[in-house]
Amino acid sequence: MPKQDRAIRTRQTILQAAAKIFEERGYQAATIADILHTAGVTKGALYFHFQSKEHLAQGVLHEQDQRLTIPDRPCKLQELTDEVLLHAYRLQTDPMVRAGVRLTMDQHAEGLDRTGPFLRWSTVCRQRLEKAQAQGELLPHINPTTTADTLVAAFAGIQSMSQALSDYQDLQTRTTHLLHHLLPSITQPPILTTLDLTPQRGHHVHDELTNHPATAA
């Protein structure tokens, strides 16, 4: 195996181990020793890729955003809802995403900059809303920046509640309830009737992107 490929695999192994430990124990309780033991790599290999526990946590936070991208769709609000519902599905099925969310929501993670995921999500949502606004999909009074921040904050609360009550098992249903309450206040009625907000939508979008990435539309 080429040296570069080995390095990439080692880095991914370390990130997966870090995600497991961070999700189970939180940022403060997690230790480098725990992550080393779980990853089965040397201390030198770990520090070659990550200089500290904070760098490991930032790697996990960054990794959760790098895997699947919603393609362009004729309706930009459908793109927005697909982003949200896909994230809800991945929270149920992807340990890296769950660990990233655990870190993002961890108010006891002293010394860890948790702003990145919130800012990235707000930016993604704002950009979708701006495109929807340009296509006449939004009600006239809507401010995309304010609406994006509100959606991100509301979803953060929904996922936190779902984690506490059902370990994310009801998250897709709770997320569709959130969208059914929020979207009528921002969306032109004819557009609202075209949106697929079913609880199964996140799973369907995930299958679309993983099984047919070149033709997703």
Q: Distance between termini?
A: 36 Å
Q: What is the total tally of β strands? A: 0
Strand content: under 5%
Number of domains: 2
The shape, in one word, is elongated
Annotated CATH topology of the largest domain: Tetracycline Repressor, domain 2
CATH architecture of the largest domain: Orthogonal Bundle
Give average pLDDT, whole number: 91
CATH class of the largest domain: Mainly Alpha
What is the helix fraction of residues, given as a range?
Answer: over 70%
Helical region count?
11
Q: Structural class from helices and strands?
A: mainly alpha
Radius of gyration: 19 Å
Order of helices and strands: HHHHHHHHHHH
Taking the sheet with the most strands, its summary is: none
Short structural description:
The chain is an all-alpha fold and 217 residues long. 70% of the residues lie in helices and 0% in strands.
Task: Characterize the structure shown.
This protein is mainly alpha-helical and 217 residues long. The chain contains eleven helices and no strands.
Protein topology:
Blueprint: H1 3-29, H2 32-39, H3 43-49, H4 53-63, H5 76-93, H6 95-105, H7 115-134, H8 144-166, H9 171-182, H10 189-192, H11 201-211
Helix pairs in contact: 1-2, 1-4, 1-6, 4-6, 5-6, 5-7, 5-9, 5-11, 7-8, 8-9
Search tags:
single chain; 217 residues; Arc Repressor Mutant, subunit A
